[in-house]
Amino acid sequence: MPDSERSPLLSAAGSSKAPEPHEHEEPFESTPLLSSSTATPRYDGERDDGHHSDAASIASRATNTPSVKSAKDRSIRWPSIIAMIVLALLALAVMILAFIVPTAVEEYAKQAIVLEPTNLSLESITTNGIRARIQANFRLDAQRVTNEHIRRVGRAATWVVGELGTEETQINVYLPEYGNILLGTAGVPPLRVSIVDGRNNAVDFVADLAPGDADGIRTIANEWLEGRLSTVRVRGQADIQLRAGIIPLGTHSIVESLTFEGSKLPHMPEYNITRIDFKEQPVPGESNAMAAEVTIQSFNKYPVSLDIPELGFEILVPGCSPDDPSILVGAATTSRVAVRPHATVVVDAHGLIKELPDSLTHLCPSSDSSPLDMLFKKYLDGEAATALVRGQKQPAGNTPAWLAEILSSITVPVPFPGRSFDNLIRSFSLEDVHFKMPDPAAEPDDPSSNPRVSGTILVLAGLPSEMNFSLNVTNVRANADVFYRGDKLGELNLEEWQKANSTQIPATDDNEATLKIQSRINDAPLNVTDPDVLTDVVQALLFGGREVMLSVKALVDVKVQTILGELVVKAVPAEGKIPVKPLGKDPLGSAAPKVGRVKITDTTPTSLSLQALVNITNPTPYSARIPFISIYVENNGTTIGEAFAENVDVKPGNNTNLAVSAIWNPSLGGEEGVRRGRDLLSEYISGYNTTVTIRTHRGTIPSLPLLGEALSRLNFTLPAPRLRLPAGDGDDDNGDDDDDENQDAGDGPHFIRDATFHVLSSTATFTLVSPLLHNTIFIDSVTATALYNHTEPIGRIEYALPFAAPPGRSQTPRLPVEWSMDSVGYGKLREALGGRMKLDARAVVGVRLGRWTERVWYVGRGIGAGVRW
């Protein structure tokens, strides 16, 4: 060991003086704290010379052995080691407190913080913004922190700090995605909160909120209202002065960004329009205006409380296209509204429309609708129509200018539910109906090829309770679909405006307000789209014996005169019922056609073309004009002729001298037709009750071939028309001189009016009555038998020389008679000499008219005959 380290703390007395250290050498740490005796004066004044006695030396060694060991221990340098350890701990603490703990505490705060808003109330609206009272519960919940180490560090750090306080702070909120514009500012007063884990803080303070850039607010609000705001990121920035108790922690600049998903942002609250009332309101110095009072209810599901002052708004409607500017139609003012947490909010608004702008009622380019038409169409179709609400630039009442500026830059679309107008039409009737058949020369696609209807429409419509103003319907037009038992019959088109008038009937305690509308329609085309349905309707009218109910679905255009002027409301949906009265129990039988003034216009060997004037009775309340109609005449399912008419007007009741044309041509039915034609003609002239069947066909109405074909399934069987025969003295129209029994012959016409038998000359003459007023009938041959009491022969006539039966009454030449001398009938004839008797006749007669010839049989009963010598 070096000598210096081995030097005792107390050197021997005789030792020499320790050498001085070199000038540039550091002193050794082992230098004894007490110098040797050679450098120290003795108490007796003598210096130690460094020599000891032996005994003293031995004692000194024995005594100083521990001292040597202690000096060795002091040589480990403990102060340096302790200093190094403290410095290391301080460095570690600085690293932990400066880097690790703040990061952990920050993460702990982010995860553990719990903020529960309990109430947000609007204290007042100031000239610069809003003063709001914010109430919330604030606490740190360590259980929300997922990382165990962060949880421990954060819990310990917040326990140590205990509570934090802030000075008055201003928070600025920016929109980074929108040019970093200022959304708004909030002035927060000083706050103190405990940050110990689990300790709740009831925060209650009043903050001043001031809006920022109006353009930014408008941009974000409009995107939110239009549903284009998928996400929004806001950045809050504030300089917060913190302190822990009385210890200031300095000013900290905090910048925090939050991103909100569009789906998580508050939505436009649902609302119900519980009351809407339109009425006339006088305006001083101006004409009356239309006022609308609306009550809207909504539910506030947020913990927000505020009182909204009276606000003014502009009411607009969309233009022709989304690119066109909206059209201002009126102004509205809301009353003061009290919004309370989790409660129903009631808003009363009063609107006023002084006049309708021209842009609202003018037709859009390349369209037949105006913006008003499109708005009404959506509303009346039951769809949600949209009005636009925008704040007025001029503040209303005590509304601050900044609030008016913001509201005036935001346009809110307000959809209001459409109204279903089901059962709006209480009754729908058509009176004084007149039908006009299609023009026969029209093409099938020509509008004039449709039947036309004229009549008086009577409509009773219920007025909605919210319409409390006078109105008058001046014109109507409509496109209506007509249905029978759910199947579409056709379309009734009123393309031209029809004049109308209306009467408003006020509401009573028992009945609602109604509007009675009356309009006369003229020649409205009825397009039959399903002939089969028309067949069912006609069949029900003819044979059902009860009222037929047709349903109508129409889109009606209405010209309405209101206090705002004349409005044209288009495509108003209307549904109603049209009761169609039956045509009577037996409409065909009730027609009772009578034929008079028959004229043969042309003949062929097998056919007759004739014209006649017909009298019929129309038992229905409907009238009709028939430009052309053609029907087949059948008997026993065989066609024997065709009848047609042109330009015939049929009115309810008696119709006389209707011109009808017909072709008698049994050959249309082949051999069976010829036979049936002969028998029918024979039965008819014999006075039997004969019937014919009329049937439509494709040519019945040339412009509506499908209609005629559909109606052909209906068989209309009616008695053969009675011919109007000339009447003689004492005769009736049928030439019935006597009260004949008629029996099988019924009440048919009697062409043989009288007979005279000459016994001595064995001849007979007959008085004939022809229904033809312009044509002469020729009798080419007669084979006949006269009978008494239906069975007893009187005589037989065979005559083969032609003779004429001119129009009216005529006398036959004397026809030779071969008497049946041994019969009872001849005896009765002789008994009646100089008097009269009734006889029957059976004959086969050859008839000729122009080129037409036919052999018919004739049976006459109860013919009055005079007997002469």
TrEMBL record:
TM region(s), chain numbering: 81-101
Domain Tag1-like fifth Ig-like per the UniProt entry, residue ranges: 746-857
Compositional bias ranges of the Low complexity kind: 29-41
Keywords for the protein's UniProt record, in alphabetical order: Membrane, Transmembrane, Transmembrane helix
The keyword Acyltransferase appears for this protein: no
Region (Disordered): 1-70, 722-748
Composition skew (Acidic residues), residue ranges: 729-744
Example of a GO cellular component annotation carried by this entry: fungal-type vacuole membrane
InterPro entries: Ig_Tag1-like_4th (IPR059065), Ig_Tag1-like_5th (IPR059066), Tag1 (IPR046368), Tag1_C (IPR055011)
Compositionally biased tracts (Basic and acidic residues): 43-54
Ranges where the Tag1-like fourth Ig-like domain occurs: 592-705
Positions of the Tag1 C-terminal domain: 467-581
Protein name per UniProt: DUF3971 domain-containing protein
